[in-house]
Amino acid sequence: MASKPEKVKVGIIGCGSIAPAYVRGCTFFSSILELAACADIDLARAQDFALEHDLKTYSVDDLLADPDIQIVINLTVPKVHAEVSLNIIAAGKHAYSEKPLGVTREEGQQILAAAEKAGVRVGCAPDTFLGGGIQTSRKVLDDGWIGEPVAAVAFFAEHGPEAWHQNPHFFYQFGGGPLFDLGPYYLTALVSLLGPVKRVMCSARISFPERIATSETWFGERIPVEVPTHVSGTLEFVSGAVATVITSFDIWADTLPRIELYGADGSLSVPDPNAFRGPVRVWQVKNQEFQRREGGGWHEGSWHQVGWQDVPLTHDPQVSRGIGVADLAYALRSGRPHRASGALAFHVLDIMQSFYESSERGQAIALTSQCDQPAPLPLGLLQGTLDE
Length: 388
Description:
Elements: E1 8-13, H1 19-28, E2 33-39, H2 43-53, E3 56-58, H3 60-65, E4 71-74, H4 81-90, E5 94-97, H5 105-118, E6 122-124, H6 132-142, E7 149-157, H7 177-181, H8 183-194, E8 197-205, E9 210-212, E10 222-224, E11 230-237, E12 242-248, E13 259-263, E14 266-270, E15 280-292, E16 298-311, H9 323-334, H10 342-361, E17 365-366
């Protein structure tokens, strides 16, 4: 029996609303991760968070100076993701950032270049594609249940977070909007299922110049809008598949699917990419038998349609945010590539910025970035582990 890998010590910078989910997720992988400390520019908030979760409180500088901490999780607001990640890398530590990797293509390039020079790794959310739902979808796709993928759709549609979020302003500032906030979940899921993208087209708009908050904290506050709130794009994948993507904060109600893939032999319904669970559903055509007419053409053959059916999950649905950090830790111990990688996150960032550029220029944009399709998780993993 293989020996257990040595634990990797982890620190968190940024103790805001997403941080508790990372604590829960990292604790699930306690066989490889030791979550040790936290820091925040608001020291009191860090102290409260540390007390609640039994962590050590640091200043940001002291956390980065701790020689025992190997991975630092960057949970700051998007507009400072790059600055904080670059500081983590400069300290000689592996950086795992909340999405997006940066708010511009140039920021992403700086992060990857700095990490390569320093000999450290970069990881980035979302890691939801490593959950049971999308990993099951990947297994269905790889096993040929719907045949060769030819098309896909992905839709995120709601009427913005100002009705419920306690800090809605940054959603409408540079680096926010539905594309940069929720788009990474959908785009990362599509790349994990279909591989990298080679070209995009897009139309985007700011539908309303300001939003009015109705959450308890900011009720009646007028929020100026700096970024597009409705983005409609098309992706052309290296594989040849074509996807339609809509992300919007301008839609009150809809009946759209989250993600669907369409293949030569059927269709695949992929669950919400902002979660780790199912359901996964498949619709198939089987026993196709067509005969060629004399002189060319086709006459009607026979086929058997199998309606929509639920697929039992092949991977653990109990994982949560932090599985990408755990996968990075296992990769550090074994030397293999990690899945929620900086290259994947940069490719998604490139897609998003290219969407905006396509809308502004009125033309298709060829991507300059590429990434490897992340390897699927193995089957039969013990709960709380990621390596066989």
